[in-house]
Design brief:
two-stranded antiparallel ribbon, single chain, 106 residues, globular, little secondary structure, 1 helix
Amino acid sequence: MKQLARSLALASALAACGGGALAPAQPDPAGGAGGGSGCARAIAIRCASGVDGCDGGKTTDHVCVPQDATPGPACELELALVCPAGQIDGCLRSPPAAARHICVFR
């Protein structure tokens, strides 16, 4: 009986919170890195510095990258770029923001 009560309490809590599902990530309108918006989506992001990685096919998601960034080896090669402060290897994001290693703004 206690197990049934716990299960019902958990189910009620999850239902009240929308089932525990996460909303898809949206580009940061203030010029952040964004993420979760595939390049197939016809949107534009403004980057405080750098450019949208979708322009020129540098990334698979709308994220900000340095203007002179060049994609490296495929993400399947388990290595990580050492990126400048405020940036991260796009392959390390969840979900990955690129198919190839490239530094993206956080």
